[in-house]
């Protein structure tokens, strides 16, 4: 147990013990005249004088002479001051616990209150620090203007996927790194480890890509029963071609409304979880004009008549366009959606024939809803903090 | 997306026209740019108050692929070409007198491969700066650093007054203590070691220090007399800084990756030489038929060539192919990789908003996703029973998912997140209960009883699947009132099962071909004696002999699909709920009957 000095103890460490201060205040026998107790009190204070006299007598340091006091010894050994200094610097006394107990009793020292921590090696113990995710290598970020990786939730357990289908993987990595299918490719290094990292999707286009790969199964010549199920709800294609042009392709329209995740700091307009509405149309010879016409109808159904299209950039669509609607209250153009035609570098490695074009479009669910209903805090729309009463009292949605 | 601030008057001069705000907004929009801000009003207001004001600026958002538009010069050129006011420039290298032999050379030391192995350089001759063009030059360098160079991690660019240096140059990598020079904006000599400490407090430079900090050697560029030109990617030397009076500029580029005007010769340690910069135009072919089939236009090749010219591309007709246009892609457009990129540029030049109005003729027959349909069935029934659907989060803390529900984490269940910014997002939920309980906690002021439900996905680890995890659709309902209401949630289960056409059977019934029943369970999430497991017996698919024998022998393989019960007081305490609650939660997956697996997450 470690000790620290009390205020009295500190004073002793600085100025000497009470008895030593009494002794040093008194004259020697030769000097005379003796100091009266009253004079002593004036000189060193009543408290010190009172306590110090008793101990000084006991130590045979002073003696009475007439009605005054004088020194008895020529020199003294102020062991109390020495003890205080020792405790102050070491926290304890070599003399041992008995001496410490005596000093505690005199209220010159007190046990030190402290907090102790016992440190054990945890499962993540390491003598080297892992590189934070923000410190990227060229392998992790290709030169594609990808979404900043800091926004992504990566998984620690499980952290790595099983190998994807080998031939598909080979085609995708080749077109990325070296080009192919009429493209020069990114000509940037492809990292196997990076491609196998598991994460929570930051946009539902990731799922659209997975579904398009399934849609192309028949084009890849894969024999499967699912294709029959698909045939039940796919129709004829443009240009009066046979619905199956001999290459297994069947047109399809798909949509999803689902959750996406962004590792963002949350505020009134940002949550780590929100929803995207996404759709794809896959058919032969679909055009950009078709996409624009489709988006016009889509937004018209929601009451947005005055819309226009801005050329934009997405790594996976070309052309890409952002959809802006004129907001009559805000009196400005606001972005309401993003869309495009998937790049051949993405579709052809899946196995789609060249003349199959795929529209993709997506809108956020929360932001337009917040604008529509005048909601300023997204937490009142998504998550456990949504007031149940709001749900109960919201009018039915009508467009 | 980067935003570039440019001088408004300067831009009008360069475009030869003063644009009205709406007119300019439309021009930018059609070209794929967005006007973020026009500071004119601000500046006017400041002037009225007699405050010092800068010249009005336009802040323009540039798409992430257009590195050639990061300065006023680039934007003005692109818009002039787009408007048909000028032809696309032809970039070419001018060799010095004496040709290749008198090129300035830089020799690369082998040690640089340990830190930033790639090097390129060039000289700009006969430059005349004004204050504004000088500012624009410095600003462009910074924009390039922030964007394509990824905050100098991949690429760092240094610019020097060539006339203060004596070529040839050498690019080396040396221990920090051996590097000594006067860095830009300082007056004394620093060693690289001292610099790394000094710059820690300088915010604009501190962020670049980690790029080389822990390397035993730092990159350094010397001239032939041993003068330091720069220490990439951190700082240039004061000695060679460019000023308004600089006429000839030496540009050095160091990189960790090679894919990114007088040329210079670079000599690599293995003896190979390369002349930089590479201003080669890439030939590509655009076909009118392809462009028409993708856009809905009907242009011929000469119209197509005109459209492409307006996008700063050099296009000429192919005498041998009436459909084709030969395109020279300038080095400023590395984003053009495929004919589809040319197709988009043609469509932009034509104007997205001028395209014919068509609609995809694709006709298909709608088909709901079965799992969503199951959820909808439960939603409708539970809502009719007076329960409100809520929307809690899918990510939660580890405690909420396990400890607070008195559940143990055996490590095989929940998917964990590696890099959450807050403790709220440590795991992907394996149960809907904690979301419902948190919703009750946040709705204390709501009148009792609180009746809520959710039908959504939970996620479990699954080592067999490519993605190592699977989504499972659950349905859960919770009742909170002055009495626990076990019978209420039991009723919710019965109602949902009734709608799913699953009959209730006795737990002792071994004969019925299908049905559900509940059986008491020992579960610390729930109050002892008030918890039950929900079992489901699938209708046997075949009337095979085996199924018959199993029934005769009373062998059942009933699956456990969920739980219900009164929540344990210790659970309620953790979620700060002061009223008793009952809950039911079960999976909807076994009730899929004829799912088209193609659109599901099944592998």
Automatic annotation (TrEMBL), chain A:
<dbReference type="GO" id="GO:0004826">
    <property type="term" value="F:phenylalanine-tRNA ligase activity"/>
</dbReference>
<dbReference type="GO" id="GO:0005524">
    <property type="term" value="F:ATP binding"/>
</dbReference>
<keyword id="KW-0067">ATP-binding</keyword>
<keyword id="KW-0030">Aminoacyl-tRNA synthetase</keyword>
<dbReference type="GO" id="GO:0006432">
    <property type="term" value="P:phenylalanyl-tRNA aminoacylation"/>
</dbReference>
<dbReference type="GO" id="GO:0005829">
    <property type="term" value="C:cytosol"/>
</dbReference>
<keyword id="KW-0460">Magnesium</keyword>
<keyword id="KW-0479">Metal-binding</keyword>
<dbReference type="InterPro" id="IPR040725">
    <property type="entry name" value="PheRS_DBD3"/>
</dbReference>
<keyword id="KW-0963">Cytoplasm</keyword>
<dbReference type="GO" id="GO:0000049">
    <property type="term" value="F:tRNA binding"/>
</dbReference>
<keyword id="KW-0436">Ligase</keyword>
<dbReference type="InterPro" id="IPR002319">
    <property type="entry name" value="Phenylalanyl-tRNA_Synthase"/>
</dbReference>
<protein>
    <recommendedName>
        <fullName>phenylalanine--tRNA ligase</fullName>
        <ecNumber>6.1.1.20</ecNumber>
    </recommendedName>
</protein>
<dbReference type="InterPro" id="IPR006195">
    <property type="entry name" value="aa-tRNA-synth_II"/>
</dbReference>
<dbReference type="Pfam" id="PF01409">
    <property type="entry name" value="tRNA-synt_2d"/>
</dbReference>
<dbReference type="Pfam" id="PF18553">
    <property type="entry name" value="PheRS_DBD3"/>
</dbReference>
<keyword id="KW-0547">Nucleotide-binding</keyword>
<keyword id="KW-0648">Protein biosynthesis</keyword>
<feature type="domain" description="Aminoacyl-transfer RNA synthetases class-II family profile">
    <location>
        <begin position="251"/>
        <end position="387"/>
    </location>
</feature>
<dbReference type="InterPro" id="IPR045864">
    <property type="entry name" value="aa-tRNA-synth_II/BPL/LPL"/>
</dbReference>
<dbReference type="GO" id="GO:0009328">
    <property type="term" value="C:phenylalanine-tRNA ligase complex"/>
</dbReference>
Automatic annotation (TrEMBL), chain B:
<comment type="similarity">
    <text>Belongs to the phenylalanyl-tRNA synthetase beta subunit family. Type 2 subfamily.</text>
</comment>
<dbReference type="InterPro" id="IPR040659">
    <property type="entry name" value="PhetRS_B1"/>
</dbReference>
<dbReference type="InterPro" id="IPR020825">
    <property type="entry name" value="Phe-tRNA_synthase-like_B3/B4"/>
</dbReference>
<dbReference type="GO" id="GO:0003723">
    <property type="term" value="F:RNA binding"/>
</dbReference>
<keyword id="KW-0479">Metal-binding</keyword>
<dbReference type="InterPro" id="IPR005146">
    <property type="entry name" value="B3/B4_tRNA-bd"/>
</dbReference>
<dbReference type="GO" id="GO:0004826">
    <property type="term" value="F:phenylalanine-tRNA ligase activity"/>
</dbReference>
<dbReference type="InterPro" id="IPR009061">
    <property type="entry name" value="DNA-bd_dom_put_sf"/>
</dbReference>
<dbReference type="InterPro" id="IPR045060">
    <property type="entry name" value="Phe-tRNA-ligase_IIc_bsu"/>
</dbReference>
<keyword id="KW-0547">Nucleotide-binding</keyword>
<dbReference type="InterPro" id="IPR045864">
    <property type="entry name" value="aa-tRNA-synth_II/BPL/LPL"/>
</dbReference>
<comment type="subunit">
    <text>Tetramer of two alpha and two beta subunits.</text>
</comment>
<keyword id="KW-0436">Ligase</keyword>
<dbReference type="Pfam" id="PF03483">
    <property type="entry name" value="B3_4"/>
</dbReference>
<dbReference type="GO" id="GO:0009328">
    <property type="term" value="C:phenylalanine-tRNA ligase complex"/>
</dbReference>
<dbReference type="Pfam" id="PF03484">
    <property type="entry name" value="B5"/>
</dbReference>
<keyword id="KW-0030">Aminoacyl-tRNA synthetase</keyword>
<keyword id="KW-0963">Cytoplasm</keyword>
<dbReference type="Pfam" id="PF18262">
    <property type="entry name" value="PhetRS_B1"/>
</dbReference>
<dbReference type="InterPro" id="IPR004531">
    <property type="entry name" value="Phe-tRNA-synth_IIc_bsu_arc_euk"/>
</dbReference>
<protein>
    <recommendedName>
        <fullName>phenylalanine--tRNA ligase</fullName>
        <ecNumber>6.1.1.20</ecNumber>
    </recommendedName>
</protein>
<dbReference type="GO" id="GO:0005524">
    <property type="term" value="F:ATP binding"/>
</dbReference>
